[in-house]
Design a protein that fits this description.
- This protein is of the alpha/beta class.
- Helices cover 51% and strands 18% of the residues.
- Strands 6, 7, 8, 9, 10, 11 and 12 form a seven-stranded mixed β-sheet that branches.
- Strand 1 and strand 2 form a beta hairpin.
- Helix 14 runs parallel beside helix 15 and helix 14 runs parallel beside helix 17.
């Protein structure tokens, strides 16, 4: 038996050594083979790529000059490389410019289409394509293909590796024989002793130690283990009795835990329901925030586009008053623009980003004021019943947005009743107690004004009512609704710190209840601008708008209303105009402005310079500049984009009228006439006795535009350029009375320009304008005048009068 055991261990040892050596050698050989193949492939591809780069460099001039002969000669140089089989130069359109092939058969291998840049290995060949660039664009493709003798290289590597493998296995067999003689014999002796101990089950036996090497250490360790095993066998019996006792105690504890779990199931179910409800509220909040970010991101630009479209449509309607067909088409386009504006407004309302102007409002008065509007919107087949309780409280809400909510809900009710039924509007004081708000998120207990809108329509099933407030959810057919009416109402109510609920039953109708918090302030009646006349005026309005298309439309509107209009494209340009001293009655600015000077800062400085100036903001999306907590800051006036011409006219006249009532001194005269069309003549500007022809040279575009407008206001002829070189070109074509130039100009300075102009025309008056003081010496024969920056309109007018008198 021992011989068999010895023989088995020896075989295993030999096989183990051989298999380990063989495995390691195979892995090493495979790795070396892969690395050699890769190095060969990379080296051959890099060499071919370098050859292609050289070919592309020397051939590109020939390609650019269409010299086929030179390109062909360059390609023939590749005959020195016997492994290169084909090469070609392609034009950018894919046509063949020049080519080379080792044999006629190889010529047929050339690509028919324009090869892509890079390398391709296929069929025992490797091809490299290199782009030839001219000014960053592809001027052509250099293509080279060569033989790729990879298999021959692999066979050579395999022969070398096979020899290494055989030699290594012979050495491993010799090493295994030595290990067999040195290690296996002592191990077999230890195995025989262990077998005896196990068969007798006598842990007091000890194995005799015959060597002092590692096997002797193993014998000592084994004898020590036998002593520990004997001691642990005794301890095991004692621990078994202890474990029996512990198991009995554990069973009792598990029974107690089971009883506790049974009592906790009910509490876990309640907690789970609360968590599910919280998660649903969180998902709704995240959905609302996502839509808010989307609408906020697009509303500004979208409303700017709508403003340009709607404004120009209104101007065209006035210009084409005698063309019925054009009027019909313009009305259709205006209706579509209004729908787009309403859609944007509803999205902002749902996302709670619509700028509200809440005041203490009596909703009963709002309903009575909407009676005619509701009857026209719902039709004669719908009966309207309004029930208003006595002693109705006021609520803090935006009355105009509240009207939109009521109108949208009424139209939804009309559609649910298919245009025939009864709509009931009820107003009552209500109290929401702690028990009610316990199950309603974002609702505080307290006193509310309740508005209930009920219809006799088809009603909604529970699954529809649960999604009714989701944006774009609608049960109407395509084209009959956007699914934003209830969403807009939801957003408005939540932004107003209120509460909204739907009660509906299929076949019995729907009731929507809106709760708005009670206000302790007295009612504030806002002027009804809807039916106010569209009046113009003669005041001066500064328009600050970065969108040039919107700016041009607004300027046309205001000029058509009779106002004198100044314009700026950013906050810095607006401040430059205000600092010039031009009288400005109103600052009309977009909320979102580019540049370092924001619209709020422009308004603040405008109020400091001109305390009586009116400020009117406009925007398609106000962000947080003038709106905080969903409400406009106190004292801020805003007209949201897109706005109609009549809305803008009424809003401006409202502000000027309020200023007139607030100040004892009357404001500039108001034209109590209907606003004129854009094509009508403007009020005449002040004309000097001797109008001057003035050339303005100023590199800052805003300053140049502002100065040109001031000169036009003073009645002079103006042309402006941004450099001295442009001024000289213009002077060669046209004569001017005055040259008004800045000192510092790009390229030629203003002083050098003045010297050239004075040498050509000694009669031309020269005015220097700068913020760095007058030049110490000009070298001019004539004495120039100086206009320091910043200057006022009076200073400019006085200086020009001095020029005229000379």
């Amino acid at each position: 038996m021992f011989g068999a055991v010895k023989q088995s261990i020896s075989r295993k040892l030999v096989l183990g050594v051989l298999m380990t050596t063989l495995s390691a050698l195979l892995v090493a050989c495979a790795t070396m083979l892969a690395l050699d193949v890769r190095n060969y492939q990379t080296g051959w591809a890099d060499d071919l790529r370098a050859q292609a780069d050289i070919l592309a460099t020397v051939t590109q001039p020939a390609l650019e000059f269409n010299d086929t002969k030179v390109a062909q000669e360059n390609l023939l140089q590749l005959r020195a490389r016997p492994l290169i089989v084909t090469a070609a130069i392609y034009r950018p359109d894919g046509s063949l410019f020049a080519w080379y092939s080792k044999t006629p058969e190889d010529a047929r291998k050339l690509p028919k289409a324009l090869p892509r840049e890079g390398r391709v290995i296929a069929g025992g060949e490797i091809a490299v394509s290199v782009r030839m660039l001219r000014n960053g664009e592809t001027a052509g493709i250099a293509y080279i293909a060569a033989e790729y003798p990879l298999m021959a290289q692999v066979k050579r590597y395999l022969g070398i590796l096979a020899a290494v493998l055989v030699g290594s296995l012979l050495i491993a067999m010799l090493m295994s024989s030595w290990l067999q003689a040195a290690i296996i014999k002592p191990v077999l002796a230890l195995t025989e002793a262990v077998d005896q101990v196990i068969r007798r089950r006598d842990f007091s036996m000890r194995v005799p130690k015959t060597t002092e090497d590692e096997v002797g250490v193993l014998v000592d360790a084994f004898n020590g283990m036998l002593g520990e095993v004997g001691e642990r066998a005794k301890a095991l019996e004692a621990s078994h009795a202890q474990m029996q006792h512990e198991m009995e105690e554990r069973i009792a504890a598990e029974e107690a835990v089971r009883e506790l779990n049974n009592s906790l199931e009910a509490r876990i179910r309640e907690r789970t329901a609360e968590l599910e409800k919280t998660h649903a509220q969180l998902r709704q909040s995240q959905k609302l925030e996502a839509i808010g970010q989307l609408t906020g991101g697009v509303a500004h630009d979208f409303n700017n586009v709508l403003q340009v479209i709607a404004g120009n449509l209104q101007l065209l309607q006035m210009s084409l008053a005698g063309n019925p067909e054009a009027q019909r088409r313009l009305e259709s386009a205006a209706f579509a623009a209004d729908r787009g504006a309403k859609l944007s407004s509803q999205l902002l309302a749902f996302a709670r980003r619509h700028p509200l102007q809440p005041v203490a409002t009596n909703i009963g008065r709002v309903l009575r004021g909407m009676d005619d509007l509701l009857r026209r919107a719902l039709g004669e087949s719908v009966q309207i019943e309004t029930v208003v309780a006595g002693g109705l409280w006021t609520t803090m809400a935006d009355p105009h947005q509240l009207e939109n909510v009521i109108l949208n809900l009424a139209i939804n009710a009309r559609d649910a009743m298919k245009g025939d039924g009864r709509l009931t509007l009820e107003l009552n004081n209500a109290m929401l107690d702690d028990h009610y708000v316990l199950h309603e998120p974002e609702v505080a207990a307290g006193q509310y004004v309740m508005l209930a809108i009920s219809d006799t329509g088809c009603g909604m099933p529970p699954e529809v009512a649960a999604r009714a407030f989701e944006p774009f959810f609608t049960t109407k057919r395509e084209g009959e609704g956007t699914g934003l009416g209830l969403s807009m109402a939801y957003g408005f109510v939540k932004q107003s710190n209120g509460h909204i609920r739907i009660y509906s039953e299929v076949g019995s109708g729907t009731t929507i209840k809106i709760y708005l918090p009670r206000s302790m302030q007295p009612e504030v009646e806002l002027p009804n601008l809807r039916n106010a006349p569209v009046l113009g005026g003669s005041e001066t309005i500064l328009v600050v708008e970065d969108d040039l298309a919107v700016q041009a439309t607004v300027v046309d509107m205001l000029q058509g209303l009779g106002y004198r209009v100044l314009k700026a494209s950013d906050g810095q340009g607006a401040l430059t105009i205000l600092q010039s001293g031009v009288p400005v009655d109103m600052l009309f600015t977009d909320v979102v402005m580019p540049g370092p000077v924001r619209s709020i800062e422009v308004a603040r400085q405008a109020k400091q310079m001109l305390p009586a100036i009116e400020v009117l903001f406009t925007s398609g999306y106000t962000q947080n500049a003038i709106v905080h907590g969903g409400r406009l800051d106190p004292g801020v006036e805003l007209i949201s984009k897109p706005y109609r011409r009549d809305e803008l006219a009424r809003k401006i006249r409202q502000l000027f009228t309020a200023r007139k009532e607030a100040h004892a001194a009357p404001p500039p005269a108001v034209q109590a006439v209907q606003a004129k069309a854009p094509g009508e003549a403007e009020a005449p500007l002040p004309v000097p006795e001797v109008p001057l022809s003035i050339l303005v040279v100023e590199d800052n575009q805003d300053a140049r535009s502002m100065l040109s407008e001031l000169l036009l206001i003073l009645g002079h002829g103006v042309e402006g350029v941004g450099s001295a070189e442009q001024a000289l070109e213009l002077l060669a074509q046209k004569e001017f009375d005055v040259l008004l130039t800045d000192h510092s100009l790009p390229g030629m300075s203003g002083l050098e320009l003045a010297r050239i102009v004075a040498a050509r025309d000694s009669q031309m008056k020269i005015i220097f304008s700068s913020g760095y003081g007058a030049p110490e010496s000009t070298g001019l024969e004539v004495k120039p005048l100086f206009l320091p920056k910043p200057f006022t309109l009076a200073a400019l007018q006085s200086l020009l009068e001095e020029v005229s008198s000379v």
